[in-house]
């Protein structure tokens, strides 16, 4: 048995091709992400990976829409999104396949 601390993982990513990680794999990436209200991520797209975000708690805005606790957002390669935590938020994010450097910034207007 191995044991790890989420607080020691890189930005909440605990499965994937990261250091440190609880499980090294290229099959997928998994994270528990914690955001304070007002945190933003720029508009971006993934060209390889599908990204699934589960809102565990809080409210967020992604791709111009508001989402809350229990919502599951699935972004396929080519879907454009941005991100804003409207409240303190906890998300679980899964990306498959694991694809390092598969985040490409785009024009924010493409999220509307």
TrEMBL record:
Name of the protein in its database record: Cupin domain-containing protein
UniProt-listed Gene3D superfamilies: Jelly Rolls (2.60.120.10)
Lineage start: Bacteria, Pseudomonadati, Pseudomonadota, Betaproteobacteria, Burkholderiales
Superkingdom of the organism of origin: Bacteria
InterPro entries cross-referenced by the UniProt entry: RmlC-like_jellyroll, RmlC_Cupin_sf
Biological source species: Paraburkholderia metrosideri
């Amino acid at each position: 048995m191995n044991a790890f601390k989420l607080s020691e993982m890189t930005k909440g990513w605990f499965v994937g091709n990261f250091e440190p990680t609880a499980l090294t794999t290229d099959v997928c990436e998994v994270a528990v992400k914690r955001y304070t209200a007002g945190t933003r991520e720029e508009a971006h797209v993934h060209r390889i990976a599908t990204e699934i975000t589960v809102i565990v708690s809080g409210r967020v805005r992604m791709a111009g829409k508001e989402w809350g606790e229990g919502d599951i957002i699935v972004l396929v390669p080519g879907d454009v999104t941005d991100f804003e935590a409207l409240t303190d938020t906890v998300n679980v994010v899964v990306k498959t396949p694991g694809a390092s450097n598969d985040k490409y910034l785009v024009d924010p207007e493409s999220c509307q």
